[in-house]
Amino acid sequence: MNETQFFHYKCSPTILHGIPSWIKILLMLILAGLSFYVPLHAGFCIWFMIILFEFFLLHFSLKEIATDLKTSITYFTMMYCASFLMNLIACTNAKEPVSVHAVLHILIPNVTYSLLFMHLGLSMQITSIFYRTTSTIQFNEGLSIIERTVTRRQVTPFADIVSLTITFIPRLTMFWQQIENAWKARGGKERITKIVTLSPTLFRISMHEAYLKALARQNRTGYNFSTKSEVYICDAPHVENLTTK
């Protein structure tokens, strides 16, 4: 397993790895929710402290931390462009003369966008810690314990659905990286045509992955399948359509 991929479990003897999974799930939900109520400057300070905590106490590599920050940087770029455009329009409509103050007003991000970016980035950084210290099986076990405690039933359909959804986050990231690497190896350019071309392949690979996980779940529950079904067998970026009997 490539440990540098986004939201991948990292096997390591740290303090968070030893905490019961159901406690970590509750902590993740509570802390991620509270992150949206943190003030702007305090939020960035907490974010920086979390990164130090990951590096020194959880022994995450710089590459793993950078991978977790990659999505936040993408959000920052989008929000900064939106803030820059809105400030530029506001200054143009106000017909302000060109000055240092006007330029700074345009370049400095709007507080609303900065606050939204901080809240999203901080919540994702908190979530990534628990994803990297909790395996898929542990997530399933923890969610099952919580659901059985709440519903007083042994059957846990909600926990099963959520655990399957959780596993798709790192898998989809891995599939996209494989497809994107194949695109670049064949001389593909970073254009809008890349997304248009690769999205159907990603969709088919994702459907195949979902099909296999559904088979595994139904086999564990003793569900009888039909004798014939059409699936996509893929080894990204190559996708082959065949019928299994």
Helix and strand element order: HHHHHHHHEE
Oligomer: single chain
Unreliable runs: 223-245
Q: DSSP helix count?
A: 8
Rg from alpha-carbon coordinates: 22 Å
End-to-end span in angstroms?
31 Å
Give the overall shape, derived from the CA principal axes: globular
Mean pLDDT metric? 81
Q: Which strand order does the major sheet show?
A: 1-2
| Portion of residues within helices | 55-70%
Number of strands: 2
Structural class estimated from helices and strands: mainly alpha
The description of the largest β-sheet is:
2 strands, antiparallel
Q: Percent of residues in beta strands?
A: 5-15%
What does this protein structure show overall?
The chain has helices spanning 21-34, 40-56, 62-94, 100-107, 111-133, 136-151, 157-185, 192-221, and strands spanning 229-235, 238-244. It is globular. A hairpin with a 2-residue loop joins strand 1 and strand 2. Helix content is 69%, strand content 6%. The protein is mainly alpha-helical. The chain starts with 20 loop residues before the first helix and ends with a strand.
What secondary-structure arrangement, pairings included, does this model have?
Elements: H1 21-34, H2 40-56, H3 62-94, H4 100-107, H5 111-133, H6 136-151, H7 157-185, H8 192-221, E1 229-235, E2 238-244
Antiparallel strand pairs: 1-2
Helix pairs in contact: 1-5, 1-6, 2-5, 3-4, 3-5, 6-7, 7-8
How would you concisely characterize the structure shown here?
This protein is mainly alpha-helical. The protein has eight helices and two strands; from the N terminus they run ααααααααββ.
